[in-house]
């Protein structure tokens, strides 16, 4: 694809086997990429190739296929480091997912550094993965968990609330770069800069940003950045924690066993070098290799191009819903598309989101309905029991959105709404 061309979702869909299937007897329209992305054949083939051609454990085998497996697995870390602007693979710890990455920080760094009375600062738009670990840490240590409130529109973080909370000199500030419900893109570079003035360590939840836009962790300046492969064309069961070398070297690993040690005697042990000291036992080898293939695919398109494509789709969706009656759309609107990711959450008056999702399914359209693992945001801020959510990716086009809007009309017809 030439650099000056826009994304042709129709061509891209040819790389994704799942788009050959039907759902409810109709071609599938997949609008749930915020939950998990679909996988191109290049990623699927990389897993098959590993098991068919060079299945072996990594790091210790000196025979050919073991060395090849080691190289492919290690190279995938180099690809990820380059994608997110990390200095080297020493900054990249493979884990199961974003949730495990954040829990690793809360358990290792948190247990060693948070004391009774210390403050931990998160926001009202966090996914449970960037909320519950800090609740647990605060309870264990007797710390105080504070929240950055949303502004009056319930669309963006209230920067006055952020600055007020910084006066407590929080030891940890943990925020999402992009909300999985509102689609709001937070200025994590600014948040990090201001938090550092108060001596805070900063963790950024990048689960909803790394798949969809350029990310540069060094430019952001954060200490930690967490992401999941399965949201960025890769397989489930593997994700990554980025950390600065200084902070990762200061942390103790959570698990002991093979591969994370350099030497063991009957009474003592010493840790392996970064990042391996955090990766005990046999790794998710095929997951890492397939993650590398996913990154290759993303790079072949270009993250800036993916971002522009999703902005176009999101704007089309918001414009299409603008004059639809009996519907409420949550998050930044079309005039703030620069701070809106490819997520559009909405509610239809008098219709439960689960009913909406079921009717969409009947039309061959996959969307998400519920609290989206962000219950405080949905129930306490938006004051909804659940919301419906469409989320877009590089394989979606405007026709997919038009079908979704038509499905909303079908919902309204069934429930006899205007």
Automatic annotation (TrEMBL):
Residues in Aminotransferase class V domain copies: 29-403
Main EC class the enzyme belongs to: transferase
Catalysed reactions, semicolon-separated: (sulfur carrier)-H + L-cysteine = (sulfur carrier)-SH + L-alanine
GO molecular function: cysteine desulfurase activity; pyridoxal phosphate binding
Xref: Pfam families: Aminotran_5
EC number(s) reported in the record: 2.8.1.7
Family in the record: Belongs to the class-V pyridoxal-phosphate-dependent aminotransferase family. Csd subfamily.
Function in brief: Catalyzes the removal of elemental sulfur and selenium atoms from L-cysteine, L-cystine, L-selenocysteine, and L-selenocystine to produce L-alanine.
Protein name: Cysteine desulfurase
Organism whose genome encodes this protein: Candidatus Mancarchaeum acidiphilum
Taxonomic classification: Archaea, Candidatus Micrarchaeota, Candidatus Mancarchaeum
């Amino acid at each position: 694809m030439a650099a000056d061309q826009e994304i042709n979702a129709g061509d891209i869909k040819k790389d994704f086997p799942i788009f050959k299937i039907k759902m409810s007897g109709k071609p599938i329209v997949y609008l749930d990429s915020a939950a998990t992305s679909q996988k191109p054949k290049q990623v699927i083939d990389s897993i098959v190739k590993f098991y068919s051609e060079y299945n072996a454990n990594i790091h210790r085998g000196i025979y050919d296929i073991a060395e090849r497996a080691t190289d492919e697995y290690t190279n995938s870390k180099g690809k990820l480091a380059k994608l997110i602007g990390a200095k080297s693979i020493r900054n990249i710890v493979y884990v199961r997912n974003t949730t495990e990455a954040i829990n690793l920080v809360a358990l290792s760094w948190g247990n060693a550094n948070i004391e009774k009375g210390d403050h931990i600062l998160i926001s009202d738009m966090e996914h449970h993965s960037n909320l519950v670990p800090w609740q647990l840490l605060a309870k264990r240590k007797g710390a105080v968990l504070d929240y950055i409130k949303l502004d009056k529109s319930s669309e963006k973080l209230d920067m006055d609330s952020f600055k007020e909370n910084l006066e407590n000199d929080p030891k940890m500030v943990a925020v999402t770069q992009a909300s999985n419900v509102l689609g709001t893109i937070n200025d994590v570079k600014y948040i990090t800069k201001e938090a550092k003035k108060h001596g805070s360590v900063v963790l950024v939840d990048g689960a909803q940003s790394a798949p969809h836009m350029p990310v540069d962790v060094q430019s952001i300046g954060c200490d930690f950045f967490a992401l999941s492969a399965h949201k960025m064309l890769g397989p489930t069961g593997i994700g990554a924690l980025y950390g600065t070398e200084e902070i990762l070297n200061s942390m103790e690993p959570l698990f002991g066993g093979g591969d994370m040690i350099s030497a063991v005697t009957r009474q003592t042990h010493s840790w392996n070098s970064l990042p391996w000291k955090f990766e005990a036992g046999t790794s998710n080898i095929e997951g890492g290799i397939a993650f590398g293939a996913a990154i290759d695919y993303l790079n072949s398109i270009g993250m800036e191009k993916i971002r522009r494509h999703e902005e176009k789709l999101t704007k089309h969706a918001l414009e299409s819903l603008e004059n639809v009656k009996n519907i409420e759309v949550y998050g930044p609107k079309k005039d703030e598309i620069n701070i809106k990711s490819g997520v559009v959450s909405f509610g239809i008056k008098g219709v439960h989101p689960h009913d909406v999702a079921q009717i969409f399914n009947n039309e061959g359209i996959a969307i998400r309905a519920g609290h989206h693992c962000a219950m405080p945001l949905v129930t306490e801020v938006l004051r909804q029991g659940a919301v419906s959510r469409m989320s877009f990716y590089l394989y979606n086009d405007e026709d997919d959105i038009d079908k979704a809007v038509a499905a909303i009309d079908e919902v309204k017809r069934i429930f006899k709404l205007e």
